[in-house]
Write a structure and sequence with these properties.
single chain, alpha+beta, 4-stranded antiparallel sheet, 33% helix
Length: 267
């Protein structure tokens, strides 16, 4: 971890470049699984030394802020939020202690990079073409990486993700394989409308998945059981960034979240 804390900008740039190279190679070598829909499954998405640094630099619970959307329906009776987040943008992580800030700056910058985005485009090309057509590579994608933390009680029912999203990526951050049974579930959709579980991701260290969002990409998460203290992961979402409305929405959302975070940090 010391290699990425309080170092010169040139050192952070070098570390970011090395991480980008590793992630691109991990995406390119990811397993392609066709059922129940086209998706990627990762092993070793981060270098071992970086992964260890990320675990050591996980923020304190009070550094996160509530996740909105579907997650709000899972708040506990006492108002405790079962999913919280930190956006991995410079304007958010600047409030973290120096020993954490350098790590997440490198990770956030790498995940937002063009080479990583283009690696996902290439590897998910068949699914992206199915949704966007043969010119899918010209569709803009706006990356938003967030560090999320779930606690017992969090769950999410089967859903397909909003049409505003183009690619969904989740990278798991457990310390060991003690609770591999709380990974994301992918669903089949049968003619009678039922959605049985077809495949479940293992919540294993340094692993994850990615898929191109479409009307058939049904997925869910069972309730996090009380044997788990926290379920940490990174959600990297590529929002469709095409047309005036979507472009303004994506940047306006980032600005709005920044203002909310600043108000929270000052109070």
């Amino acid at each position: 971890m010391d290699q990425m804390t309080e170092r010169r900008p040139s050192d952070l740039t070098e570390a970011t470049s090395a991480l980008i190279k590793h992630i691109v190679e991990a995406v390119e070598s990811a397993a392609v699984v066709m059922e129940p829909f086209y998706h990627l499954e990762f092993v070793g998405i981060f270098p071992a030394v970086i992964y260890a640094a990320m675990l050591a630099a996980l923020p304190r619970s009070n550094d996160y802020r509530p996740m909105h959307g579907r997650s709000k329906g899972n708040d506990l009776a006492d108002g405790t939020h079962t999913r919280v987040k930190i956006d991995l943008f410079p304007e958010y992580i600047r409030h973290l202690p120096p020993e954490q800030r350098g790590v997440w700056q490198v990770v956030g910058n790498a995940l937002c990079s063009e080479p990583v985005k283009n690696a996902f485009r290439r590897k998910l090309a068949p699914a992206l073409e199915k949704r966007f057509g043969p010119e899918f590579h010209d569709v803009g994608m706006f990356p938003i990486p967030i560090l999320t933390r779930d606690i017992p009680g969090y769950k999410i029912t089967p859903h397909t993700d909003t049409h505003w999203k183009g690619i969904t990526v989740q990278l798991y951050l457990p310390r060991d394989e003690a609770n591999t049974d709380i990974g994301t579930i992918f669903h089949d959709v049968l003619p009678d409308g039922s959605m049985p579980k077809a495949r479940q991701m293992k919540f294993a260290p340094n692993s994850g998945y990615a898929f191109a969002v479409d009307k058939h990409t049904w997925h869910s998460a069972d309730p996090v059981h009380d044997r788990v203290e926290t379920r940490d992961s990174i959600l990297l979402t590529y929002f469709v960034d095409q047309g005036v409305v979507k472009v303004l929405r994506n940047r306006g959302k980032r600005i709005g979240n920044f203002l909310l975070n600043e108000i929270r940090a000052r109070t």
